[in-house]
Amino acid sequence: MSTLARKKGVGAVIWDYLTTVDHKKIAHLYLIAGGLFFIMGGIEALLIRIQLAKPNNDFLVGGLYNQVLTMHGTTMIFLAAMPLVFAMMNAVVPIQIGARDVAFPFLNALGFWLFFFGGLFLNCSWFLGGAPDAGWTSYASLSLESKATHGIDFYVLGLQISGFGTIMGGINFLVTIINMRAPGMTYMRMPMFVWATFVTSALILFAFPPLTVGFIFMMMDRLFGGNFFNPAAGGNTIIWEHLFWIFGHPEVYILVLPAFGIFSEIFATFSKKRLFGYSSMVFATVLIGFLGFMVWAHHMFTTGMGPVANAIFAVATMAIAVPTGIKIFNWLFTMWGGNIRFTTPMHYAVAFIPSFVMGGVTGVMNAAAAADYQYHDSYFVVAHFHYVIVGGVVFALLAGSHYWWPKMFGKMLNETLGKITFWLFFIGFHLTFFIQHFLGLMGMPRRVFTYLPNQGWETGNLISTIGAFFMAAATVILLINIVITTVKGEKAEADAWGDGRTLEWAVSSPPPVYNFAQTPLVRGLDAYWIEKMEGKKELTPAEPLGDIHMPNSSFLPFIISFGLFVAAFGFTYHNDHSWGLPVGIIGLLITFGSMFLRSVIDDHGFHIHKEEVLELEKKGAKA
Amino acid sequence: MQVEEKLTAETFPSSPERATLEGKNKFIGFWLFLGGETVLFASLFATYLALKDKTAGGPSADELFQMPLVFVATMLLLTSSLTSVYAIYHMKNFDFKKMMLWFGITVLLGAGFLGLEIYEFNEYVHEGHVFTKSAFASAFYTLVGTHGSHVAFGLSWILTLMIRNAKRGLNLYNAPKFYVASLYWHFIDVVWVFIFTVVYLMGMVG
């Protein structure tokens, strides 16, 4: 395949990305799509903050405010944070374990396209009557009453489609980490980010099916005359709350564990020290994953479950502070006595610790069931979850993007602009959300589109809005940085930061399509660091140079996902229009037909021959 | 071992489904997938238990369910699980013809089960037990129907594999495919055991 190295036209590049099954290119796709949705969610946040900047504002009122608020939450969680986490995982996890690709490259591509078409479908609602407007949790008592538009149907079917993609991604990474580790890469030698990915994938596997079931019920009730949530026919809306939160609480750990993993890598790299307390970090990660499933009902303290259930869930929730505390101290001790370099990723990492701890403390406050009756549905809760999600996950994604940018795209992001981005974002973040704790304690309810003057909320809300614009400015500078870097950034070395410890820094930036010409032999934790300390420039190979087996590209993942996209339109409108049902069936036929083709057409992949590998390696070394 | 290798009864590995990396990946990946499916059905069962007495004036479980029909359906499906074990036994012994024969019997038994289920649903609809009638009806049809659609998918999957590979015999490329299809079939069977107990037995006695 000498075409691998050839320069390609725009059309060929697009076709390449539409059909790729290479984890590194899929990482690019996740990063671009997730980044676009992040910007959309950010614009929605700005609209919310503009509306709330002063009392009795009429910038964005009533139903439209509900839609923007719902789409902000939904977009940020499902369409921005999740895919950006997957971007990081795809970009580095296979390389960090010394593998040439994930276990199921085809499924990997399918997962991306399902997410993409699901997100696209959800956002089509803006142009087709109106977006969903029942909050990102879409409680059945609200969403079944939202009958004026098809917004909720777009929410249910769009997220259902993208959820299938997420489950596939989860299974794929589990199998990859179980089966594809290089020789010597034992479980307790895996980088922390790999461990985080492993536990997160397990959470995805067990947390998404309840959500799938919840969506099935909601779809049945809204589109096919079901009665799961209809009290008049014996239904019960609380079932939705349980199913949603059995998914919803593990979901926050699905997001934050990879964030912990990213920061663990960054702390060790830029402190020039082995991660402190590696085995306790692994233990804490697994324990958080386990406890994450035991606490969902703390979102429902005021639902009326009774004091026993509330007490059990309160105690279980507070218990999570213990493994999280272990992690915080391990990061601090990693820096202790280290040779610290304050690069952009390290700025985020250091800022993450106090920011996330503040979110954790308010989390324990919310966990106290009796006190939660006061905090419930107030801005205190809004402040809490933005502290953990932005202070934890978004900081980590920004840090990870800067940290692995050279590995993903072969060029270093500008450090000065990176630090400006950080400071603007850091200041803006605290400006926006710190004051919201107090607004909440003063009684300001969440999700309400305006408030009256003279309640003492004016200044707080104005400060919060100003902070949001700081974060917007930070994002703009990040985009400028990306453009400048792409146009004329300096080419990155293999070990781009000079202090890389894990395997991804041993291969060129960006890595060759097969990652490793020879599968490496791993001799301990921080495998690349060990080799460097012995004065070696390259990894110890575990196999002789030979032909490399690669998977074939395929357009089928795109078509399978597109079929579901079409079907979702059909079923959304099947009660209003006679074309609905046939379109729905055609869509499903496209999907199942493509799956059938995938099943009956043999796909053995191809080999890159030894001579071509040698040639590519020589070229890579020269560049 | 490589996927492309030509094999004889002597060189065929004892666990052909795990002899290649692709096979191992499929094997573990599919077990994990079944873990997710378990949670999916657990959610459906929990909902059914919460709503099973909410009939909203429609027919209730003990008025609807008929033991003879459900018993025959159960026997068909349980037997089909056994015959798929025979098929995999012959696959491991590199006896392609006998494997196809037993998979064929499995498909016939599964189709019999599906036919009875369609007949059963049709009867219920005539008795006024329609999907939109009550929360009980919605939960019943969604739980049992999700299982039924799994049966239908499993049948078409095994049939597709049989037809696709009819002329080329066993190799390390298709052995994992047959194996995971049989795993799926067992899983469907296990779920039915729970449906038989929780829905039908508890519906008639409880």
Structural commentary:
Chain B: It is found in: Cell membrane. The complex is a heterodimer of chains A (623) and B (206). Chain A folds into two domains: 2-554 and 603-622, Cytochrome c oxidase-like, subunit I domain (Cytochrome C Oxidase, Chain A); 556-602. In chain A, 66% of the residues lie in helices and 1% in strands. Chain A has 20 helices and two strands. Chain A has a two-stranded antiparallel sheet with strand order 1-2. Chain A starts with 9 loop residues before the first helix and ends with a helix. Chain B is mainly alpha-helical. The longest helix of chain B has 31 residues, at 21-51. The termini of chain B are far apart. At the A-B interface, helix 6, helix 7, helix 8 and helix 19 of A face helix 1 and helix 5 of B.
Quick rundown:
Chain A: Pathway: Energy metabolism; oxidative phosphorylation. The complex is a heterodimer of chains A (623) and B (206). Chain A contains 20 helices and two strands.
